[in-house]
């Protein structure tokens, strides 16, 4: 399984990567807080991660999740109150992967040019989003109907926005970035632009940007909006 092979830790709260980075909300929302080594809970999460590749969560039953994990229905409820809480639990490490991929947006090294930083971040975010696309697709589908998940997702995106706004303000202060709308407003527009377009990619929407074009497109929008420049190839 991809999740198991990559050693995804579904119990971890995502840690701050720098003194100014986000601290994500704890997403462990099951009935209990098992130890990291609890193999049965891990079996539920790993099984769900794979099952959701081909089946939307709304079509998955508790019995499906329990059977996939080799457990009884009652054993499932020992760990989670609902199938939606399984999705909540998978969101933490996915968010961590996306933030790590975005690191050069938030904390660009002093010796790295904006084009290189944004292009690399865009490429890495697209790759991570594509890898976890089936989970993020389900989050996008569920936020309208699950208030707890909607609140959590908006909180996560809000912290991405704050981190990007701080980076824009730092670059404007040093003359690297151009002037424009308030930094937070611009960061929000850019982050929601990325979230919506990557979400369409995950849903395989006919309106999605072609996979081979999405990283360059996102990088171009960021660079022109924040720095007033194009990509290195332009």
TrEMBL record:
InterPro entries: EthR_C, Homeodomain-like_sf, HTH-type_TetR-like_transc_reg, HTH_TetR, Tet_transcr_reg_TetR-rel_C_sf
Top-level taxon in the UniProt lineage: Bacteria
PROSITE patterns named among the record's database cross-references: HTH_TETR_2
Domain called HTH tetR-type: residue spans: 38-98
DNA-binding region, residue intervals: 61-80
Keywords: DNA-binding
Record-given protein name: HTH-type transcriptional regulator EthR
């Amino acid at each position: 399984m991809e999740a198991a092979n990559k050693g995804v830790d579904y119990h971890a709260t995502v840690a701050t990567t720098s003194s100014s980075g986000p601290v994500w909300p704890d997403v462990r929302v099951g009935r209990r807080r098992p130890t990291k080594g609890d193999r049965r809970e891990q079996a539920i999460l790993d099984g769900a991660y794979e099952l959701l590749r081909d089946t939307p969560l709304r079509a998955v039953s508790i019995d499906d999740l329990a059977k996939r994990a080799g457990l009884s229905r009652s054993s499932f409820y020992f760990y989670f109150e609902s199938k939606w809480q399984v999705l909540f639990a998978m969101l933490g490490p996915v968010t961590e992967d996306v933030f790590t991929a975005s690191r050069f947006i938030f904390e660009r090294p002093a010796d790295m040019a904006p084009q290189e930083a944004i292009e690399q971040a865009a490429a890495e975010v697209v790759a991570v989003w594509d890898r976890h696309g089936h989970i993020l697709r389900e989050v996008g589908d569920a936020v309208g109907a699950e208030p707890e998940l909607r609140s959590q997702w908006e909180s996560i995106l809000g912290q991405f926005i704050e981190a990007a706004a701080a980076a824009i303000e730092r670059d404007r202060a040093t003359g690297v970035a151009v002037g424009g709308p308030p930094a937070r407003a611009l960061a929000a527009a850019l982050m929601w632009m990325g979230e919506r377009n990557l979400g369409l990619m995950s849903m395989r929407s006919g309106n999605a940007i072609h996979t081979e074009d999405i990283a360059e497109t996102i990088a171009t929008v960021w660079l022109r909006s924040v720095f007033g420049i194009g990509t290195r190839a332009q």
